[in-house]
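Hi V.,

You were right to ask for the full record rather than a summary. Here it is.
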Amino acid sequence: MSVKIARKIVDYQVVTDAPEIESANQKKPDPEVSPKIIGANSIAEVIQITPVLQRPENLEGATYKIKTPLSEHALYVTINDITIKGKRRPFEIFINSKNMENFAWIVALTRVLSAVFRHGGDASFLVEELRSVVDPRGGYFKPGGKYMPSLVAEIGECIETHLKRIGLIKEPEVSEELKAKRKTAKESGIVGASQCPKCSQYSVARLDGCDTCLECGYSKCG
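Predicted structure:
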């Protein structure tokens, strides 16, 4: 069958009934593996492991006062909670004080801590991280004789107190052996205790020929 072409040919295309065969060297990239290219810059697609929690209009919380010999002005630590599946968990933290000396690092600390809270998951690890911070200028004793290695460590203790209050951290069980050692130390009036390498408290006393921490139970004898 002949077809008459009445117009000028400006282009052509070969049409075939055979299925298109993909070359082994021209495989399409896997969208799950390959990064997404945006504009002129190569930007890898970000994968969110846990969705960021959205802030409700109203939150319940508590404020804790920190008074140290380092400053005449107290610090006020406010931790607000969000309720998920009937359980409270920290959502954000604010630290306020009239003392502006530590303003920059306190603002940075509150933003980082709040970001960790809002990403969900177990935030109790922050307590140990903050309590292990030691001030090179030296720590201080709280009213009652408890030693704090730094202001950051006491902020960590505030978070620990709050997490215990809402049930995310349970009170550690004290063994009968440690109770007996505390009683012995109290009755014998041991003074001049040294600092514990584990909990940083000045509560290491020599009992039964072995150095033992009366606060956390640490002992060189195992």
